[in-house]
Each structure stands twice: as C-alpha cells, then as structure tokens.
Specification:
Chains A, B: L-homoserine binds at residue 191. Chains A, B: One of its GO terms (molecular function) is NADP binding. The structure is a homodimer. In chain A, strand 4, helix 3 and strand 5 form a beta-alpha-beta unit. The first copy, chain A, is 35% helix and 28% strand. The mean pLDDT of chain A is 95. Chain A is elongated, with a radius of gyration of 24 Å. By secondary structure, the first copy, chain A, is α/β, with parallel strands linked by helices.
C-alpha cells in the first residue's frame, strides 16, 4: 500500500487533533482511499516538551523548518500553527519546493488566498484550506464545486464560536453580556482580550474567504463592514425572545445589481429559521443560489477533532490527487479580479430600536416625527419598562435603507426627551419559500 | 474555449430545469471552469410535442437512443428520465461506449449503484448521482470526500418531500392526515397512489444510497426496515407540539458495535433540534462522525431548478475531469462488500403511546402492569381527553429496546380495558453536546 508522508507545522489544538484523527481512523482511511498516512515530522518551538507524548512516539520532532523542507520524502505539509508569520513564509517555501500544503489558517487565507493559490498552481501542487472557515463543516469545497452551476445571491453565516457561545448563553440562562463573556473566557472560548471575536473581526475574515469563493472574486478582510456584539444587553435578548427571535452575530454577503455588500452585524433571527437553532459552539453557513434556492451547512465550528476532520478531508483529497498525478488542479480562491461593491448604506432591513426616554406626555409624538422625517415606517411600539421618571421603549421599523436608520439615530439622539438610544439591531426575515 | 457536449435523456421536471440552468448561468460556468456547455441532443418519447419550446431551439430532439450513442461528439449523458427501464440499459450502454454519465435516478442507484460504478471505472469514465438524494443539497460528495477521515456513526435524514409537506401542514394548520394528503396531491407533491412516499419506500431508497457511501458498503433498499406516516393523526401532532416536539419521517442509519441498523420511521423531533426547522419542501441530512462530531446539510429536497443544481454540479465536476484527463477516478458507491446488520429490535428509544381505553377505575394499574412486565419504565402519563365512556391516554416511556415495545404493544392490545392502541411513535432526543 502506498504511503503518504505528512509533516505537521504546529502541535496545538488542531495539530494534536490531526495526530489523534490519523491514529484513530487510519484503517478507515486505508480502506477508503488505499493509502496509509504517516506523520514523519512535527515542527514545534520546544521539541523537548513533547518527547514523552504518547501520540508523538516515532515521529521526528524538530524546531527547524529547514529539517522538514530538506526531507524529500514529505508529500504534504499541514500548517496548523496559525498567525501570519512565520506561517506565510513556510507555506510559500513549501509550495516552491513542490510540496502540497493543507492549512487551517483563516488569517493568512483571508489576506493572501489568491497569491498562495497561484504559487501552488505554478508549482503543480495543491493548497487547500477547508478548515479555515466553519471548523469541521464541509463548506468551501461544496460551495466551490457542488454549487458551481449557481450564481450565488447571498451567504449568511454564523461563523464565530465565541460570540455564538456568549449570545446563546445570554438567551438560555438570562445572564448579562459581561457575565456571559467571563464564562466564555473561563472556559477558554474567549481570549483575555476578546476584541477579535466580539467586535466581529474573526467573522469578517471568514466572510472574506466565503465571498471570494462564492462570488469568484478577490475579497479581503478590509472589504467587510463590521459591527460587534458589545452593545447587546440582556434586555435586547429578552425582548427579541418575547417576539419570537434570537440574537445571532451574522456574517452577510449579498449580491446586488451593481455589486456585492459585505457586513458583519448582530441581528434578530426568527426562531422558525434554521439559523436560530445554531447554538453554542455550532456554526452554520446559509447560502442562496439562483438555481439551488437555499442550502445550509451546519456543524461544530471549532474544536480539536472537528477541525481535524476538515484538515484530514483536505489531506485525503490531496493524497488522491497525488495518486492520480493531478495535483495543482481544481483549486479554489484562484481569482484575483476585484468586484464592485454595493453601498451597505442602501441595504434594506427591518430594525429594532431600544430607547430610554423621559416618561412624560408627548414623548411618542416627538419620536414618531423623527422616524417620519426620515421616511421610516414604524411597525410596532411597545413601552417595555418604567424606572423612576424614565421609560424604555421598543420600536420595530418596516424595511428601511441603512442610511435612513443612521440619520434617524442621530435625530433621536438630540431629541429633548431622549436619554439614550440604547441599541439599534437589524431584524432578519424568514423568507423561505 | 473548450466545448462540452451534453445529451439529456428525458425532459420532465428535472430535464427542463437542467436546460434552464444551462441557459441562465452559462456565463458563470464559463468563468468558473473555462468551458462552454452545449445541449446537443434531448431524448423524448414524442419529439414533435417539444419542437416549439423556446428552451429547445437548435437542439436535436430524438426518440431514438441510438441517435445519441452514435454521436461521438457527446461528452456527457445526463439521465433524468427516472425509473429502472430503459434508464438502466441506456446508462450501461453509454458507459460501455466510454461516455460519462450523470444521473438523478434514485431508484436505479439504490439498486444497481456498485454495478454501474464498476462499469464506469472499467471504461475510465465518470458516473455521478448527487441529485439522487436530497435534491439540490450537496450531500453525497461532501459525505464521501469532505468527511472521508471519519468513521460515520449515524445518518439521520429528512429526505422525502411529500411526507414532510404533509406533516408540516398538519403541524402548522391543524388539518387531518387525510386533508393534508389531499392538499399534497392537489399541489402535485403527492401522487394519486401515494404509497411510495407515505409508506416510507422513497426515503428507504435514499437511505440505502446514503448508508452505502457513509459506511463504505453495499446497502440496498431491501436492507431497510420501513414504517410510514399513515397512522399519524392530528391528535399525535398536537400532543407532540404541546410537549415541544414536531413529528418528522426520519431515515436513520446507525452503526452499532456488531453492524449497522437501517430504519425509516416517523418520530417526535425536539423543536430545539436543527432537524425540527426542516419544513415543507426542504430536506436535511444530519451526519455524525467520530471525528467531526455532527454536521447537517439542508436545502430544497426536490424541484426543477434545485435538482438541476445538483445535476449540473456533477456535470461541471465531470467536465473538469475531462479537461484534466482524469475521468474514472475518485468515484463513490464502488464498494460491493456487504456489512453485518444489527438487529433493529435491540435499538433503544424513548416511545410515545396513544391509547384509547375504557374510562373506569383501575385502568391505569392494568396498563402500568403491562409496561412493568415488559421491563419498560414510564416517564409520563397524561389523560388527554374523554369522550363518552372512553379516555385517551398519552404515555411516554424511558429509553427501551424495540423488542420490548413490540411485546408491550401486543400485551396492551389484549387488556380488557383497551379499546385501541392508537399509535406508537419513537421520541428523538436532542443529544447535541
């Protein structure tokens, strides 16, 4: 039986998952594709720390990438170290040495995807990165291949586990944003500085990768407008729930007639919608195409073994290409062309407002005028609570362009009765047919 | 630009969808894979009926398969006629003439999948059939390729549109089974004789295909135990709803230590579970692997364009193989080995019973004894209604092997107080971690 030698760059959460997956399922992979996988090298900063690990017996541990690149028996390098440097340099060097690469590195792929792909193609080797979006969920390859006959109209993803854990916890247990964040940090789901996740940057990177593939264009992180979940309060979560919604951080790419719009924002999702059942550590990507209508891909968005499943899917696919002598073909993220952007200011949504106002007569007429002046129809107004001389109002609008919402927010802020525009959140519709 | 000639066998719902998809998105496909698709022939029984159709201008309409097989310019034959004969003969003839085949034919693939695949491989051409399960949903290729590193533990599918439409309608509108079936027939979702769908046979065929791929074995329709939805009443749907469940027809393949068990049955699905949001014409397949944990694939399970999306995904993939000179590789459903079966009698589930009994004292103790005698723990007993001198009881059991349930059903039927064991339905748990 043919043997495929792989080298692991990094041995953290995903790297150890890959080693565990190979040990656990080697017989299944042999049966399935007729070759055996051997981990020949693992690159770690301090090899001595890993020597006694059961999983790594018989494997060459090294802190030198040169050791790996010099070994001509290596068929596939698996980059699971994360970050930009030195992962980027290692990947380019591997490709230029005609070694296939599988990577789980979203930061790198979101910034340099097309450049890496072209280097791989020039060298007739594969570069694949299924694990960079949605953990174990098969999404990049199905989006690129299975849906290839479609013009993709929109991609809506729940692709950040940290924010989904926080929001699910706020919804299920009634805790505050701050408490939910602290629980996430304690469990290791959120970092000490949680900005990258809670401000939506991580989701924006994944959206850039999804949009590049779905729209056959070169989309980067900088093209995505980002709003985070920091302002979502327990009141917002509770009012959403009372109306039959749950709040999720969505990464949304929409094709309009004159370009595409890319946004990350929290939104009310109707409980009847499949995205509403995506809780805790799960991710999902909801794709609409002009032929297929809508499809959703759902699963564990992170974690050692689920992410290793996606990495090994790529490794097995690469092994098949090696066996068929067809490496360097059928790759994704090869487009370098840019695509026009549609102004997100023109995108229409229904919106939820939570306002803290003076509890005096005539307040509602002031507020209603502000909405009317900005051409916004109000669908519902409810007074939710009253504390001393202040009242909390919830307002739901009809579908309105983003720019009118920004204008009314400013107008509301300067009303004499207004104490605080506490939150403004988009409301998603369930428009499944 | 390279041209790929395709011939369509059949021009019904799916065939016209394929023609429409090619017309609508030819530019997108050209951009994406760098080749142009031309429909050169369409095989129909009465060509004269189609001559004026806008979609078919410039295409050779024929009622003779020999016309098609004789044309050496055809690269791919798309079989969308359905049924076993003459589709089977045409497909084998095409493959033996070294022509690639894409098929949407679940009946054929469920019976002859491995035989067809081996004929394709011997002739170094592709056979693919993504559209045979789940309409437009990318499932067979992702299950085979993206999840290749996993030992698949279970596959739970909502894969029959007719029954899902009927059950969703009963749940949403409170109509009876009979009325929901008549609506489905009026809308064209159910046939005049609905047995194939409502008795679960269609779902069983799709389960056989899914299990063959997921478990790397040759599983056929005959291996699946089938229960239909004919006995589901509005009362059952309503009681399920009151407890936070919705009833779905599930196709379930489970790996146990000593083999696999394959069943189609209606079940209570918790509303919190992603499968519960799969309504009407949607399908979903929920897959658990020992590495990836659980993933779900969701989308339109039928319909002209959604199914055409899956067909064209296969056509595009085959075109890439043609361009790379790698047809005949990487195919699914190639296993001919059989796999041991685990007795479905031993599978454990929680169960719902609806019983119509005499409304007299002492009834509950008779019934409780019957359950106790069969080692079944009762979780909940509720008297739901009382009509004249009869009472309707709902009983939910703890997890119990199927064989004990069959025994208690017989014991209940002969109790003096028992008027009718109105229904017995499995209750699914939401065991997501």
């Amino acid at each position: 039986m043919k043997n495929i030698n792989v080298a692991l760059l990094g041995f953290g959460t995903v790297g150890s998952g890959v080693a565990e997956a190979i040990r656990k399922n080697s017989r299944i992979m042999e049966d399935s594709i007729g070759c055996h996988f051997t981990i020949s090298h693992v690159l770690v900063r301090h090899p001595e720390k890993y020597r006694d690990m059961d999983l790594l017996q018989g494997i060459h541990l090294t802190s030198s990438f040169d050791d790996i690149i010099a070994d001509s028996s290596i068929d596939i390098i698996i980059e699971v170290m994360g970050g930009i440097h030195p992962a980027k340099e290692y990947i380019f060097e591997a490709l230029n040495h005609h070694i296939n690469v599988v990577s789980a590195n979203k930061d790198l792929v979101a910034l340099f995807g097309p450049e890496i792909m072209h280097t791989a193609m020039e060298n007739h080797v594969n570069f694949s990165c299924e694990a960079s979006v949605g953990g174990g969920i098969p999404i990049l390859r199905p989006l690129h291949d299975s849906l290839a006959a479609n013009e993709i109209e929109s991609i809506v993803g729940i692709v950040n586990g940290t924010t989904n854990f926080i929001l699910s916890n706020m919804d299920d247990s009634g805790v505050s944003y701050g408490d939910a964040l602290r629980v996430a940090q304690k469990k290791g789901y959120a970092e000490a500085d949680p900005t990258n996740d809670v401000a939506g940057y991580d989701a924006a990177r994944k959206l850039a990768i999804l949009a590049s593939i779905g729209f056959h264009a070169n989309v980067t992180f900088d093209d995505v407008l980002v709003e985070g979940i920091e302002k979502i309060s327990q009141n917002d979560v509770q009012y959403a729930s009372e109306m039959g919604y749950t709040i999720k951080l969505l990464a949304v790419a929409i094709r309009q007639e004159n370009g595409i719009a890319l946004n990350v924002y929290p939104a009310f999702v109707p409980r009847s919608h499949p995205l509403a059942s995506v809780k805790g550590s799960y991710n999902a990507i909801y794709v609409t195409g002009n032929i297929v209508d809508d499809v959703m891909f759902y699963g564990k968005g992170a974690g050692s073994l689920p992410t290793a499943s996606a990495v090994m899917g790529d490794v097995i696919s690469t092994a098949k290409h090696i066996l068929n002598h067809s490496t360097g073909t059928g790759m994704m993220l090869t487009e370098t062309k840019r695509i026009p952007f549609y102004s997100s200011l023109k995108l229409e949504n229904s919106y939820y407002f939570r306002l803290i106002v003076d509890d005096v007569t005539g307040v509602l007429s002031q507020i209603a005028s502000a909405y009317a002046d900005n051409d916004i129809s109000i669908k519902e107004v409810v007074q939710k609570s009253r504390i001393e001389d202040a009242a909390e109002l919830m307002i739901i609008t009809e579908k309105t362009p983003r720019e009118n919402i920004i204008h009314v927010e400013k107008a509301l802020q300067v009303l004499p009765c207004m104490r605080q525009v506490a939150n403004v959140v988009r409301v998603m519709e369930d428009d499944r047919k």
